[in-house]
Design brief:
CATH architecture of the largest domain: Orthogonal Bundle
Bound molecules: protoporphyrin IX containing FE, 2-acetamido-2-deoxy-beta-D-glucopyranose
Strand content: under 5%
Keywords: Calcium, Disulfide bond, Glycoprotein, Heme, Hydrogen peroxide, Iron, Metal-binding, Oxidoreductase, Peroxidase, Secreted, Signal
CATH topology of the largest domain: Peroxidase, domain 1
Radius of gyration: 21 Å
Structural class: mainly alpha
EC number: 1.11.1.7
Distance between the termini: 52 Å
Catalytic activity: 2 a phenolic donor + H2O2 = 2 a phenolic radical donor + 2 H2O
Shape: globular
Helix content: 40-55%
Strand order of the largest sheet: 1-2
Family: Belongs to the peroxidase family. Ascorbate peroxidase subfamily.
Pfam families: peroxidase
Length: 317
């Protein structure tokens, strides 16, 4: 039997621990304050994806581009204003990142269910998970309690990984965010869904390099002329563009990666063996992808009293 003093001691200890860790994310963060939060997001994302399969890809990418700039704080959602230099106008995002209206619509539903409670940053994180699951990808438990930034950084967004980056550069950029080369390869597997614009892969398909399958290059050239047609779309995974599988890696092994930054993961370098492994083992890819997404969603969240809960996602309160 615990004595009263022991109970008091343990209680004080617990109080100290919970206060210290009060600034941590937790999957149950909205259980008391907005029990319908997760279900509302899931329904919104499911509807959006059944309306347009590609939206799953766009939402996954939105989360990535949010988290790599100032952390997962919904900074990418802020519009240009006198105080905000919008990340939407940075080169990697401009006329490229999509899904804003889906997030805005889910947010407005949540505002009517439980006003001022659920952050835009959490919506983006949960949307990415629900989007993955909606197209056959893995699911995972999303930790919650991120708050929204009151700032954005267009200049940091300019430094998002580029399709022209070599393997060393990709590895080091991801390392600065706490990712291993294995995480980089797993996360790049998101390119098993979605589309890319001609301007991002033109150089590769007209280069006649030995790291591209000749037949693949000539097929791609039909939809991506040597000049003009910059925004013409081509699937990142030509075989199964709308389902989350490991075809992306099978493509790389066949030199059929669409972006130069895809093919560098399998071009004689240190990541070849990982690509090879994922090309043969879909379940291993999916579980590594889920683990890496959980890691991504943990990048520098604003918690406690930092930041704010925006009322609308594109504007600071
Ligand atoms: C490794 C470095 C990466 C580079 C250089 C890169 C680059 C790109 C580029 C250039 C596009 C085409 C954009 C357009 O044409 O408008 C794209 C699309 C996409 N990216 Fe990445 N990406 C990288 C990593 C990631 C990661 C880590 C994820 C998510 C976990 C991701 C998810 C996607 C998705 C799903 C699409 C298709 C989006 C859509 O159809 O709307 N990418 N990426
Ligand atoms: C690549 O090859 C194609 C067809 O073989 C040719 O028309 C084109 O000029 C070549 N491009 C370069 C950059 O060498
Ligand atoms: C695939 O990876 C899983 C782990 O996710 C492992 O248990 C299994 O043995 C692997 N399968 C093959 C064929 O290597």
């Amino acid at each position: 039997m615990a004595s009263l003093s022991q109970i008091i001691f343990v209680s004080i200890l617990l109080l100290i621990i919970t206060t210290k860790c009060g600034a941590q994310l937790s999957p149950t963060f909205y259980d008391a304050t907005c029990p319908r939060a997760l279900k509302t997001i899931r329904t919104g994302i499911r509807n959006a994806v059944s309306g347009e399969r590609r939206m799953a890809a766009s939402l996954l990418r939105l989360h990535f581009h949010d988290c790599f700039v100032q952390g997962c704080d919904a900074s990418i959602l802020l519009d240009d204003s006198s105080s905000i230099d919008s990340e939407k106008n940075a080169l990697p995002n401009f006329k490229s990142v999509r899904g804003f209206e889906v997030i805005d619509s889910v947010k407005s539903q949540l505002e009517s269910v439980c006003p001022g409670v659920v952050s835009c940053a959490d919506i983006v994180a949960v949307a990415a998970r629900d989007a993955s699951f909606a197209v056959g990808g893995p699911s995972w438990t999303v930790k919650l309690g991120r708050r929204d930034s009151t700032t954005a950084s267009r200049s940091l967004a300019e430094n998002l990984p580029s399709f022209t980056d070599g393997l060393d550069r990709l590895i080091s950029t991801f390392a600065t965010k706490g990712f291993s080369a294995r995480d980089l390869v797993a996360l790049s597997g998101a390119h098993t869904i979605g589309q890319a614009q001609c301007a991002f892969f033109r150089d590769r398909i007209y280069s006649n390099q030995s790291d591209i399958d000749a037949g693949f290059a000539s097929t791609r050239r039909r939809e991506c002329p040597a000049s003009g047609g910059d925004s013409n779309l081509s699937p990142l995974d030509l075989v199964t563009p709308d389902s989350f599988d490991n075809n992306y890696f099978k493509n790389l092994v066949q030199k059929k990666g669409l972006l130069a930054s895809d093919q560098v993961l399998f071009s004689g370098g240190s990541t070849d063996s990982i690509v090879d492994e994922y090309s043969k083992n879909r379940s291993k890819f999916k579980s590594d992808f889920a683990a890496a997404m959980i890691k991504m969603a943990d990048i520098s969240p604003l918690t406690g009293t930092a930041g704010q809960i925006r009322r609308v996602c594109n504007l600071v309160n």
